[in-house]
Amino acid sequence: MAVDPSDKKALNIAMRQKLFAVATSRDVAAFEELFRYYGPRVRAYMAKLSRDGQFAEELMQETMVAVWNKAAQYSPDKGNVSTWIFTIARNQRIDHWRKANRPDFDPNDPAFVPAEIKPADAAFDMNEDADRLHRAMETLPPEQLELLRLSFFEEASHGTISEKLGLPLGTVKSRIRLAFAKLRTALEDRS
């Protein structure tokens, strides 16, 4: 390379020309010059970040392959060639870090295990039991039905029900027990 490396402006112009030659005509000689200049710098940058020479070498190789493949995407309005190449290097490092830290797929993870489908006869029995329970509940006196609704469907405590309905706590408890006894009898008779 005939450009003085200390003349940053001239160096950037020369490297831009090399990159354009790679982008337009896949110029291997131009890419070799880019590689000789930026390869060691990218490797040093990666070695400094990762403290692993082998990993730094691999990332440098992948970065330079990406430079070859993406040369046509370089835009001089958005920055210098070095900025563009080191951005690719940084992204390569981030991609490797993400892949290395991605959790392994666990086929037994509940999120991936389909819900168990009940056999048709079990589903039928369950529906039949629900129908029997509804019919049995229709036989209860309205005050007992209201107590069951408040206690089990609205999940109100016995004390809350007592206050809400203005009934003594013992009355609430005994009426709920009575309602259960009637339901049990009604369900056993129909079994």
TrEMBL record:
Domain RNA polymerase sigma-70 region: 34-102
Domain RNA polymerase sigma factor 70 region 4 type: 131-183
InterPro entries, per the entry: RNA_pol_sigma-70-like, RNA_pol_sigma-70_dom, RNA_pol_sigma70_r2, RNA_pol_sigma70_r4_t2, RNA_pol_sigma_r2, RNA_pol_sigma_r3/r4-like, WH-like_DNA-bd_sf
Keyword tags: Sigma factor, Transcription, Transcription regulation
UniProt keyword tRNA processing present: no
NCBIfam families attached to this UniProt entry: sigma70-ECF
Family that this chain belongs to: Belongs to the sigma-70 factor family. ECF subfamily.
Protein name: Sigma-70 family RNA polymerase sigma factor
Organism: Pelagibacterium flavum
